[in-house]
Sequence to fold (467 residues):
Amino acid sequence: MNYENQNTEYKETWRDEYLKWICGFANAQGGRLYIGIDDNGDVRGISNAHKLSEEIPNKIVAYLGIVADVNILHKDGKEYIEIDVAPSNVPISLKGVYHYRSGSTKQELNGIALQQFVLKKLGRTWDDIICEQATIENIDRSAVDYFLRKAVDAQRLPEESLNESTENVLQNLGLVDNDGKLKNAAILLFGKAPQRFITGAEFKIGFFGQDDTDLIFQDLIDGNIIKMCDTVIKTLKAKYLISPIHYEGLQRIEPLEIPEDALREAIFNSIIHKDYMGPQIQMKVFRDRIELWNYGRLPEEITIEKLLGRHSSNARNKNIANTFYKAGFIEAWGRGISKIVSQFSKAGLEAPVFEDFCGGVLVTLYRNTNLVEETIAQNSNSNNDCTKTAQRLHKGLHDAAIRTFDCIKDNPKDTVEQLAEKLSISKRSVLAHIALLKQNGLIRRSGGKTFGHWIITENEDNINFEN
Fold:
């Protein structure tokens, strides 16, 4: 005999509680439960095999509503029972509890895990569920027009689609049901304020210093997801990444420091594959790398290794993926990851790393640190926008310190804790900013921690980056 695994379970005697294991097999990939075999796979035999072969099938039907093959087997003169359970096309419960076989263990499903399981069994995705209380009035027509223009430009919709009504566009994309009610995908894609209906539909960006506990400044991108990638890229270019300037003839060229198409692909993937019942998408920007994380595990049939190779396209949110495809944002053949890796390779950058991390997928995109330092050096005496971005990245403190300075000017009696809350950063970061402001002679403290106040002594333009 083999050892227990995802599809095999051994029990020396029968107990009715083992109906849980049968339920778990039915809800997963099916399997076999053997009665009369110990954990090592050795046949011990049972004395009441014939009686159990009659009782067990009846109990399976009565409690689970399914039919399983129950067979009496023989080895070395001993009888034991095999219960062969086929995978069910519908969710199966035992007294209202859903069990699931994962690896060699049995789990009880509840909460988000149960909802995801039921949807999968019914062949539906979360974005296909009706968004109660949302109406066509909650749809932003400008977002619909944005989508239509992108789709026409990508030659995935005809030119006359630009004149389609909002109702027809949503209907053609499968974003409403037969009664005209909006699905979750409709609100996420085109809603005026999706966060009113769906929590976690946001994109959080933060710039960090030495480690991920040292938050310097951050941005929260909300609104509908059809425009979210554009907004994220615009924010990254303005505050987080470098676009070194050079000239080809008389033409001014400002390419992003990392391949922009690859960055967009990674952002699109995070939006499409996110589990929107979980936390927001998070992007952490460091001097040497970008860490992009979205909640939602990979499908069971796709591992990280398969993700990097040839694999089928299997979107968590099929309606969102279909709309993004129509807009020309993505391809439909699961080639996005290879596209990201290929473009980083062509740019001479370190290959991105993909990980299964904290219930989701973490992508690490490595930056061109030499280019960052070179840009800083070339523009050290200039005041152009590129220099300001480079300085911010070099010290990782200037803008955040100025924000702290402005907050102190407006609220001179605030404590460090109150400043941290208003600025949405850690107390540790506030203390670092205050230290820099004091070091440059911009502020000083009068009185104690609780009843004292801040005194402004200089203008913020005097902050010295070399300190």
